[in-house]
Write a structure and sequence with these properties.
The complex is a heterodimer of chains A (323) and B (523). Chain A is mainly alpha-helical and 323 residues long. Chain A is 72% helix and 0% strand. By secondary structure, chain B is α+β, with helices and mostly antiparallel strands. Helix content of chain B is 52%, strand content 12%. Chain B has a 4-stranded antiparallel beta sheet, with no helix packed on it. A 3-stranded antiparallel beta sheet of chain B has the order 1-3-2. In chain B, helix 10 packs antiparallel against helix 18. Chain B is elongated and about 105 Å long. The chains are: A mainly alpha (323), B alpha+beta (523). The interface between A and B is large, with 40 and 42 residues.
């Protein structure tokens, strides 16, 4: 019995080995690994609808960037052939002999292919939205961060903001487009020259809220440089704010283009755009519905998808949903 | 509070000034001014030199420049005798530098160069061959002009100086009118008193009648400028304010015949009488007591701004009556079916370009309910207002629902709600008495903006249904290169947006006494 007992004790002892005290290792705190972006995407993809929307969006994106490359959209290709004007999908395909994607949405007022037209236009709209959003967001966020942090800058900017904010946005853009012309890049200029201001103002308020929190104050007392406070203390808090702004900004530029082209101050006729297609087909919206509803449907589809995806991504980027 | 308000108003005026000046600077210096002649019939009919002089006259009228025609200068100097005829022949027919030998021409050039004018000589254009050789071509008369560009800063001051005009008793430049006054008189048309002027442009400066808003004035006039192309040469204030439609007759009496039994069926609005500078006809002498005989006529339709305002206001009322309760309902049934349906609607309204659903609605309304689509084609005028009003209300309902739901949900987790629940209040009471009253505060701020916004009209809705309203004005102006209307719209829209901001803030303070502008809160 005693021998037995002794043996067990020995065995238990032999299970343990002494290790050296390691100061570096002892500093480590064991916790489940948390990666912010991993969690964002985990939450985002948990929703089944997001998968569907994302696939749909990819298809739209591929279509609008690949189809115009291989199938050049020429609005004037049938301009001399009056037989091709205003054909419904079935008529157009009968006219050209058999099914083809090119004529599957009918022809427009000048015999142009609606199918090619909407993809070339969707490409313009998407490019416009991405470029404008990129410029406005970058300038807006940087200016907003400085604006929120520096008090002298705040005084100057508030005066400028209060003056410009009084002018209705539509009025401002229309007048700018009227003055500087309606090419693609001058249109981008009109949308961005004051567009960043509202984003910056929104961002300023958010930065001001975080700026005076205790941990920021502590960090400043410890002598952290301002750039580091901005990039490490403040900006991470802003991720979900940024995504929320992006979610509303991106579709808004597409809507804005459609709106401005519709009232006749948008892109020039040489650039295919959804707004212009809608504007040209508006008188025919009862007689030749396919000409009107195809670009409207694409515009609505793109904006809805962008909006919903953006909102869901914004929800997912809020750390409180990561439980 | 007063000090804050004063500072706020002064700053608003300053920013309005900056905005007007910037837009004027951009519009008048960066756009091609000759586009105003694109659809001008007079310009098309004239040719050669006469066309150029017509251009100068139009530019002067719209304030771009000032010019002096030598012939009018010479007629002032020399009278209308032979010396003048000789001078005008010299200018109109002699080619080359012959005109420089005339002493009057030299004087003209000297005088106006000293004032900073530039001398422009348009040589006569003659036929160089054929039977008519040596004769002037059509419109080929020679001209001598002195031209001076008007700097934009002066144009701004001109514009602001003329923005408001007040009628005085010295307005009528008629020496035979000796009795000049402004006084209260009994108004024979309304039976009430009216302020009547003599020597002022209008006779009735302030009066009452049966038309909305029942009290009218002709004393102070807002002058937003002149339209360049769309409503060529018309006052913009008149364009947006003058009623449209058919003449509306009524049994009335002419001023001089009041008291007799002579009635006439006429649409004349006798309150609009203005002074007649010309000869009075016999009929006018019989019908009127004085020289205020120029009258306008009553029309049955609404003016542009009234059209927009009626549609907009009804839409706003519908939106607040539907949007707020729906938002509250969504918050109460959070994550239930009602909420999900509401969210789908909000996403649809927020994301889809507005013209997509306006057209969708137009298609549905005309197909299913047989409502009139285009405003002008409507047999019953009342029906034509339905579709535009609903189209305008839809997005507002969506946005009100969205914010109401958001603010309600934010409030639902507050301590005061938990306390109310602990006290044993019913859910109904908590929602209607406590949460919604707090949640509505941020929305109160937007009420003046949405009401005043009706005055600026709705661009897409009015365009789709062809409503004759002010919403279309800016886009018409931009497409027609009408710089006058563009500047007027800027002033009008910006002023309204400033007023609605201030009114919104004041209303919010009134509704929620916790908010104050005086104590230095915030950072």
């Amino acid at each position: 019995m005693a021998a037995n007992k002794k043996q067990t004790v020995v065995n238990e002892d032999s299970l343990f080995t002494f290790i050296d005290h390691n100061t570096i290792e002892s500093e480590k705190i064991i916790a489940p690994r948390y990666s912010y972006w991993k969690s964002v995407f985990r939450v985002f993809f948990r929703k089944k609808t997001n998968w569907g929307l994302l696939i749909l969006f990819t298809v739209l994106l591929l279509c609008s960037f690949i189809i115009p490359v291989f199938c050049k959209y020429d609005p004037n290709e049938n301009v001399t052939n009056a037989l091709m004007f205003h054909l419904s999908p079935s008529q157009a395909m009968a006219q050209t002999g058999g099914f083809s994607f090119k004529w599957c949405l009918g022809t427009g007022a000048l015999g142009n292919s609606i199918f090619y037209g909407i993809w070339a236009s969707a490409r313009t709209s998407l490019l416009l939205a991405v470029i404008c959003a990129a410029i406005n967001m970058t300038v807006g966020i940087i200016m907003g961060a400085v604006w929120g942090y520096s008090k002298q800058f705040d005084h100057v900017m508030l005066v400028i903001y209060n003056i410009i904010a009084n002018v209705p946005y539509i009025l401002m853009i229309s007048v700018l487009v009227y003055i500087i012309g309606s090419g693609f890049w001058s249109f981008v200029f009109s949308l961005t020259v004051t567009g960043w201001l509202s984003i910056a103002y929104f961002f300023r308020t958010q930065v001001m809220i975080i700026r005076d929190r205790e941990y920021s104050l502590a960090s400043r007392c410890l002598g952290t440089p301002i750039t580091r406070i901005v990039s490490k203390n403040i900006l991470p808090f802003m991720t979900s704010v940024i995504v929320t702004i992006l979610a509303t900004e991106l579709p808004s530029y597409i809507s804005m283009e459609v709106f401005l082209s519709f009232i006749g101050v948008g892109l020039s006729a040489s650039v295919p755009s959804l707004g212009r297609m809608i504007q040209e087909a508006q008188t025919a919206f009862i007689t030749y519905p396919w000409e009107f509803w195809s670009p409207v449907a694409i515009a609505s589809l793109v904006t809805i998808i962008l909006y919903v995806l953006g909102q869901n991504l914004a929800d997912a980027s809020d750390p409180r949903t990561h439980m | 509070m007063k000090k804050y308000l004063l500072r706020r108003i002064l700053f608003s005026l300053f920013s309005l000034l900056v905005v007007i000046w910037t837009v004027m600077l951009l519009v008048f210096s960066l756009t091609d001014r000759s586009v105003i002649f694109q659809n001008d019939d007079t310009w098309n009919k004239r040719s050669a030199n006469e066309r150029i002089v017509y251009e100068y006259s139009q530019y002067q009228r719209y304030g771009y420049l000032e010019y002096v025609n030598y012939t009018s200068y010479a007629s002032n100097k020399l009278g209308n005798g032979d010396a003048y005829t000789e001078e005008s022949n010299l200018i109109q027919r002699q080619e080359g530098d012959a005109y420089l030998e005339s002493a009057t021409v030299q004087q003209f050039i000297e005088e106006y160069t000293a004032k900073g004018y530039k001398i422009v000589r348009l040589d006569p254009i003659k036929f160089s061959s054929g039977r008519t050789k040596g004769q002037l071509k059509p419109g080929g008369r020679g001209f001598l002009l002195a031209v001076r560009e008007r700097p934009i800063i002066y144009r701004l001051f001109d514009y602001l100086g003329n923005l408001f005009t007040v009628e005085t008793t010295n307005d009528v430049k008629d020496p035979s009118l000796t009795d000049r006054y402004v006084r209260f008189e009994k108004d024979p048309y309304s039976g009430l008193f009216a302020i009547v002027g003599s020597g002022t442009t209008h006779k009735y400066l302030l009066y009452f009648d049966s038309r909305f808003p029942w009290i009218h004035q002709n004393w102070i006039h807002l002058n937003l400028g002149v339209s360049y192309t769309r409503f060529r040469g018309q006052e913009i204030t008149g364009v947006i304010n003058d009623p449209s439609g058919d003449l509306k007759n009524a049994r009335q009496q002419f001023p001089a015949l009041i008291g007799t039994d002579q009635y006439v069926e006429t649409s004349a609005n006798f309150h609009s009488a203005t002074y007649n500078m010309g000869e009075l006809t016999d009929a006018e002498k019989q019908q009127f007591n004085d020289r205020y005989t120029v009258i306008t006529y009553r029309r049955s339709g609404l003016s542009m701004i009234e059209n927009s305002f009626v549609i907009g206001l009804v839409a706003v009322v519908i939106a607040y009556c539907l949007g707020l309760p729906l938002g509250i309902l969504m918050a109460r049934k959070k994550d239930k079916l009602v909420d999900k349906l509401g969210m789908a609607y909000i996403v649809f309204i927020m994301a889809v370009p507005s013209l997509a659903y306006i057209f969708l609605f137009a298609a549905l309304g005309t197909k299913l309910f047989n409502l009139p689509y285009k405003f002008a084609n409507a047999q019953v005028k009342f029906l034509a207002y339905i579709l535009p009003t609903i189209s305008l209300a839809l997005p507002q309902i969506g946005s009100l629902m969205k914010w109401m739901r958001r603010y309600m949900i934010d409030q639902m987790n507050s301590d005061y709600v938990k306390f109310a629940r602990a006290e044993g209040l019913s859910e109904q009471e908590i929602f209607s008495q406590h949460i919604s009253r707090n949640a509505i505060i941020p929305l109160v701020h937007g009420i003046p903006a949405s009401i005043l916004g009706c005055l600026t009209g709705a661009i897409i809705t009015e365009r789709v249904y062809s409503v004759p309203g002010v919403g279309n004005l800016l886009t018409l102006a931009i497409n027609g290169h009408d710089n006058g209307i563009i500047v007027a719209c800027t002033v009008f829209y910006t002023t309204l947006s400033i007023i609605s901001q201030i009114a919104g803030d004041l209303l919010m303070v009134k509704y929620d006494p916790r908010i104050s502008f005086e104590t230095k809160g915030g950072r």
